[in-house]
């Protein structure tokens, strides 16, 4: 793929014609698709999503419907689909084809319009040392530091020059973004350029984050794993009391400054915290948050590779594996079986706070970069060529490692394994 192969917004509008547009995927990528289409004068009718947890929700004031309900009323003459699901785009495309919708005529895949999905780690530090995360289980790290608002503005301007279908900037990866004192200004800049912003936080600290919410981020995730004492086992270094205080503050700040902000509690399912999810569901119902969940993953992929290769692992990795509800061997068996399927991360760019471009957002080795030097000095086509020619990516995909975190996130597998109690009620 090259940047010249992507249709212009006017060409996309001509393809859609007078049909109503439906976005398949009601999370990150769906938000981005909605925003990009609106920026180019293309309206949307609603969202399609198979996740039960999204049913009954509204995104940007528009309904979320199940695929069966959508296909019951949609026709080729009346509906056009933009597939905006990272992990399952190929499955969704196949489902569209089975219902007579034609690729590049009746539906397009968002990831084929944009060059990359941009993950900007504005914070090179975290206050926790979670044993399932490289911040807690890796001994070598990239330099610590924070991206300034001035540098962030330069970065955004370059992204939009290179990639006009960009709709959302994810302001985190391995760092805690709320530690960056420039975050309110960074969110403001993102809004100024017509982009959505996504934040994920552990909220387990003493910080005044009201200015962040007042800056109006689009989407705010709280990462949790358990309730009371079980929470602190895997959110290592976290403080339950501070977390709860901040959860209620977040709801208060949202209501005061930005009622439209989407708040998601992202629950990591371990063997010891299975039943606690019901208490989180009750709290989400009380505060108007959305609950999402996945089997707790062993991160980063460097650790997955060490396990399957039989290389030594440290005590923190062993502790994580001992608590997991879904074991690495089972995950990799399933991941290897679907190794021919696409890599969700292949069209992501992880840009570190110092503008280094990491090779992959799910591998962690500090010396593993996609290109040398600063993101600001590399062209879009050079980044594409580096990704397409990567032997590291080729080896990862040949072994099925690239599908590992997709398996951890598979909600159908969670239901099949009865990994949460009364799964039908967690919607």
Report on the structure:
With 427 residues, the chain is an alpha/beta fold. The protein folds into 2 domains: 3-112, Rossmann fold; 117-425, Aldolase class I (TIM Barrel, Alpha-Beta Barrel), CATH 3.20.20. 38% of the residues lie in helices and 16% in strands. The protein is built from 18 helices and 15 strands. It has helices at 9-16, 28-39, 67-73, 89-98, 134-137, 149-162, 183-192, 210-214, 229-234, 240-257, 277-287, 301-309, 315-323, 328-337, 380-388, 391-398, 404-408, 411-416, and strands spanning 20-24, 46-48, 58-59, 62-65, 79-83, 107-109, 117-120, 168-170, 196-201, 219-224, 262-269, 290-295, 348-351, 356-358, 369-374. Strands 12-11-10-9-8-7-13-14-15 form a 9-stranded mixed sheet, with helices on both faces. The chain has a 6-stranded mixed sheet with strand order 3-4-2-1-5-6, sandwiched between helices. α8 links the parallel β9 and β10. The longest helix is centred in the middle third of the chain and has 18 residues, at 240-257. It is globular. The two termini are 39 Å apart. It comes from Thiorhodococcus minor. Keywords: Iron, Iron-sulfur, Metal-binding, S-adenosyl-L-methionine. This is Radical SAM protein. GO terms for molecular function: catalytic activity; iron-sulfur cluster binding; metal ion binding. Its cofactor is [4Fe-4S] cluster.
């Amino acid at each position: 793929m090259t940047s010249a192969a992507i249709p212009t917004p006017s060409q996309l509008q001509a393809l859609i014609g007078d049909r109503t547009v439906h976005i398949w995927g009601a999370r990150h990528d769906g938000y981005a698709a909605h925003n990009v289409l609106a920026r180019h004068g293309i309206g949307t009718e609603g969202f399609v999503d198979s996740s039960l947890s999204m049913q009954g929700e509204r995104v940007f004031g528009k309904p979320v419907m199940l695929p069966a309900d959508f296909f019951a009323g949609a026709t080729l003459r009346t509906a056009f689909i933009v597939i905006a699901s990272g992990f399952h785009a190929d499955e969704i495309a196949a489902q569209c084809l089975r219902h007579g919708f034609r690729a590049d005529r009746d539906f397009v895949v968002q990831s084929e319009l944009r060059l990359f999905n941009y993950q900007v780690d504005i914070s090179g530090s975290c206050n926790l040392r979670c044993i399932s995360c490289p911040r807690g289980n890796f001994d070598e790290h990239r330099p610590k530091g924070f991206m300034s608002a001035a540098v962030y503005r330069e970065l955004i301007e370059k992204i939009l020059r290179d990639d006009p279908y960009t709709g959302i900037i994810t302001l985190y990866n391995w760092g805690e973004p709320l530690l960056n004192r420039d975050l309110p200004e960074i969110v403001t800049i993102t809004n100024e350029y017509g982009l959505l912003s996504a934040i994920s936080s552990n909220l387990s600290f003493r910080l005044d984050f009201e200015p962040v919410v007042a800056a109006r981020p689009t989407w705010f995730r709280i990462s949790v794993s358990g309730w009371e004492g079980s929470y602190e086992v895997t959110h290592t270094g976290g403080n339950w009391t501070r977390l709860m205080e901040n959860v209620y503050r977040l709801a208060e700040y949202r209501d005061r400054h930005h009622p439209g902000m989407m708040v998601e509690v992202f629950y990591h399912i371990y063997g010891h915290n299975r039943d606690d999810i019901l208490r989180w569901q009750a709290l989400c119902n009380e505060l108007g948050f959305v609950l999402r969940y996945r089997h707790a993953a062993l991160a980063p992929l460097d650790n997955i590779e060490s396990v399957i290769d039989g290389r030594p692992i440290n005590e923190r990795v062993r502790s994580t594996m001992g608590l997991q509800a879904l074991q690495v061997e089972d995950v990799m068996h399933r991941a290897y079986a679907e190794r021919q399927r696409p890599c969700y991360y292949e069209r992501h760019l992880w840009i570190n706070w110092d503008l280094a471009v990491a090779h992959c957002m799910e591998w962690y080795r500090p010396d593993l970069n996609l290109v040398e030097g600063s993101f600001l000095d590399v062209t879009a086509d050079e980044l594409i060529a580096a990704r397409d020619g990567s032997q590291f990516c080729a080896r990862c995909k040949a072994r099925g490692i690239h599908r590992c975190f997709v398996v951890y996130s598979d909600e159908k597998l969670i239901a099949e394994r009865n990994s949460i109690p009364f799964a039908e009620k967690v919607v």
